[in-house]
Write a structure and sequence with these properties.
Blueprint (H helix, E strand, L loop, with lengths): L6 H17 L4 E4 L2 H8 L11 E5 L5 E5 L4 H6 L7 E4 L11 H11 L6 E4 L8 H10 L4 E4 L3 H6 L4 H24 L6 H14 L14 E3 L21 E10 L2 E11 L4 H20 L6 H15 L8 E4 L8 E6 L13 E9 L4 E10 L4 E3 L8 E3 L1
Parallel strand pairs: 1-5, 3-4, 5-6, 9-15
Antiparallel strand pairs: 1-2, 2-3, 7-8, 8-9, 10-11, 10-12, 12-13, 13-14
């Protein structure tokens, strides 16, 4: 599949990253996060199960180094030419006595980077301590600099083309949530409902299909309702259960999140009261959320409502969202939490996530939101009232 954006779009992204690199006096950046590789070039493959990196220099096109059998995906999914593809041989895969990072270090040295200032991503799920150790051992004269989240912060500001893809992802999230609404009933197994949700996520619409979401559908029901991220089981939904769903839609690896809550029977007063507080808090957040405000001030708008209702939510209430591969769709940059001083930029996209995990039960409400100069726009569109099933 060709890349989702024009070559000019990717050239602009590369220039933005290279400008930040130059400001930090980096000669090259070694990227291990597949989401950052995708954002920078369009590269898309299930190739992150083995070591791979993308090397970005301040004055050259990115170069992908990875397993030989995955090299063909570069030509299929990016605008990069064959000179930007460096496959390592099969005999380096999953051995105790050697590692692909030795091959990568040799290539970097041959490239003239052996004595240069090299940045790396220190907290990526996909860049292991062994990979870093191999690179450092193979390049003993290089100056290694922790450049974690350098690309992530550049990604936080979305282009118009990205906003459009996120709008499509949000539509997929809403379609999948409607499937959950229509099918959740006492006696239905959680796994059977999730199968329907995942089918809807991938099937998409007549106009476009969906991708695997970076986070699988999450169901809070029964014993799992008091925690944030339980996985589904083969248990059956029960009468008088409160069930919260966190469901995503993904279009060309761009993720939109959506959370809603249902009750299978007559809702208890504690649920309707908490939902009223959460919806009031969500309105307060959306009223103050715009470019230029501090993330902590957005959180304070939420907290002011919770104080009236005597409720607490220790965790953050939102984060930047966009390109993502399992296990996470968050960009690990902007967080909406108390006393956070980060200034929210125009054209950020946030998942405003108002989950309340209480004593033995829980409920959730969220929206994926595009931040503009004058306010914000909810990309996800789905009713916020409590769904009554059963």
């Amino acid at each position: 599949m060709p890349p989702p954006f024009s070559q000019a779009e990717y050239e602009n992204r590369l220039q933005l990253v290279q400008t930040v690199m130059a400001g930090r006096e980096l000669d090259a950046l070694v990227i291990g996060d597949p989401a950052n590789m995708n954002w920078l070039t369009g590269f898309d493959a299930w190739s992150f199960y083995v070591p791979q990196v993308m090397v970005v220099e301040v004055d050259r096109l990115p170069v992908w180094i990875g397993r030989a059998m995955d090299a063909g995906a570069v030509g299929l999914t990016t605008h990069l030419g064959s000179d930007c593809v460096v496959p390592y041989p099969e005999d380096l895969v999953q051995r105790d006595d050697t590692h692909p990072s030795t091959f990568m270090a040799r290539w970097l040295s041959d490239r003239g980077l052996g004595g240069k200032r090299l940045g790396y991503e220190s907290d990526s799920f996909f860049f292991s301590p062994r990979a870093l150790a191999g690179l450092q051992a193979g390049l003993p004269d290089a100056r290694w600099v922790d450049a974690d989240r350098l690309v992530n912060w550049v990604r936080a500001v979305k282009s118009p083309a990205e906003i459009e893809l996120l709008r499509q992802a949000a539509l997929l999230a809403g379609s999948a949530m409607q499937v959950a609404w229509d099918a959740v009933q006492p006696g239905v197994r959680q796994c059977d409902l999730v199968a329907k949700i995942m089918a809807a996520q991938v099937r998409g619409t007549e106009a476009f299909g969906g991708d695997q979401t970076a986070i699988c559908p999450l169901i809070l029901a029964g014993e799992g309702a008091g925690t944030a991220h339980p996985l589904w089981t083969d248990q059956r939904f029960e009468k008088n259960q409160t069930v919260a769903f966190e469901i995503g839609g993904t279009r060309r690896r761009y993720n939109a999140g959506l959370a809603r809550t249902a009750h299978l029977g007559k809702p208890p007063e504690k649920l309707t009261r908490t939902l009223a507080a959460v919806n009031e808090g969500l309105d307060a957040v959306l009223a103050v959320l715009k470019a230029g405000v501090n993330a902590g001030d957005v959180h304070q708008a939420w907290q002011s409502v919770l104080d009236v209702y005597g409720l607490e939510k220790p965790s953050r209430i939102g984060y930047s969202i966009g390109v993502g591969y399992p296990p996470d769709w968050g960009e690990r940059t902007i967080s909406l939490r108390a006393e956070e001083t980060t200034v929210i930029p125009e054209n950020a996209v946030l998942h405003v996530m108002l989950g309340m995990w209480l004593d033995g039960w829980g409920m959730e409400m969220s929206e994926t939101v595009h931040v503009t100069a004058s306010g914000c726009e909810c990309l996800t569109q789905f009713p916020r009232e409590l769904h009554i099933g059963g």
